[in-house]
Write a structure and sequence with these properties.
Four copies of one chain form a homotetramer. Chain A has 135 residues and is of the alpha+beta class. Chain A has one domain: Thiol Ester Dehydrase, Chain A, CATH 3.10.129.10. Chain A contains three helices and seven strands; from the N terminus they run E-H-H-E-E-E-E-E-E-H. In chain A, strand 5 and strand 6 form a beta hairpin. Chain A is globular and about 45 Å long. Chains A and B meet through helix 1 and strand 3 of A and helix 1 and strand 3 of B.
């Protein structure tokens, strides 16, 4: 299993008039979690796109437990429980500064060839960076 | 069962560099679908908030079937299969101009009293507008 | 002079915890104003991009007079005072349902060839649709 | 004169199909620049709001010089040339990783009492943190 953490603060523009982070903005946090997880592994989503691979999102499941509030420093915990095949599933936990669990999510993504948007299997270069965590 | 439809176009600012509507922007479409469904019923989410009721989101499940593209006029179909109780579950289908199904989602919301954010049951005023569809 | 109007409602996700439409979201309203102005003229920004022309933004000036509030139906008035040349300048006024002026803005855009992002003059096809308003 | 710098990366969700950071998203960068400038001074915008002071935006002027691209680490340079009075004017420069100037902006904000949204002068607590830079 691979686990990575990254911290980011809730922006004013991400709140809504309920005084919470708007529920529609959490997907950007999952995206940052994934991207920073790849960076910690020495690769990047940008590099994948430059190789001609894109990762469109197939499914998202989100649970809102406690609200994230303005200026809170949120920890995004990004987890991979299985090696990617034709698709990859990331799990996310969002925690506040006291370690309270605010939110969980699972995001399923495909791999496609950018030239024609046809599905492909997980690129070998990406598999290699995850493999050490699954032995 | 209650069904409502509303059309809106994908804004340039909602696309991403994949050339698709960014996956994180769909939640705003569900929100518009719900809000316009209430308006078609002669009430509004704004009126609910003015009565002191808020509806935080508890869970979202989303499936991305085909991409929504820039300037497409998307039909948001908002469906309610059961009368709300302590919570309410809306189902959504997004369709393109040719009637192709692009996306489905289910959103579960709670009812809370704005003064203290404590859970309450669905307000009677809201139940009344839905009841004619469930007899 | 060319003037066009389009109405759209402030989404919940566009508000912030001040209870106003977040100031960073107005630029999307200018974009919708421009795009719907072109559509009223029988063309579209999408068609321009398909012709290989893009219109990056060069400058924006915005004045916030009164707040736009959740669920308000905002009228976006899009104005063109001069025919486009190497660049084009749109002026915007945002009004609430009572006709109060909420916001003004000017947006200057360039024309570039999508293939190499090099500046070009305003495409003839676009000039033609504006010309009848400047005689 | 007070100058502060903060770095943040362009999110995928902030790009548009032109392959650039969407022009409407820069205002969030100014906001983060201001907020982190206050934090570096030992105070915070959140603390101001908790004191009952809000800072609505009055005017924005933006110049787009070069595009910000996906995953670029942008330096936001936040500058204050004059002590705040009834309003405050921040200037911003956005730079890429090579130090190229991408974007400049000026944002003018008011101070209002949150209880009634009436204008007030800059709170003394905020003046104090800026004063050492203007002697």
């Amino acid at each position: 299993m691979f686990v990575s953490e990254f911290k980011m603060r809730v922006r004013y523009g991400e709140t809504d008039q309920m005084g919470y982070m708007y529920h529609g903005n959490y997907a950007q946090y999952y995206e940052v979690g994934r991207v920073e997880a790849l960076r910690q592994l020495g690769t990047s989503y940008k590099a994948l796109e430059e190789e001609g691979v894109m990762m469109p999102v197939l499914e998202i499941q989100s649970k809102f437990i406690r609200p994230a509030l303005y200026d809170d420093e949120i920890t995004i915990r990004t987890m991979l429980r299985e090696l990617p095949k034709a698709r990859v599933s990331f799990e996310f936990e969002l925690l506040d500064e006291s370690g309270n669990l605010l939110h969980t999510a699972t995001v399923h993504l495909a791999f496609v060839r950018a030239s024609d948007m046809r599905p492909i299997r997980c690129p070998q270069s990406l598999l290699e960076v995850f493999k050490p965590y699954f032995t």
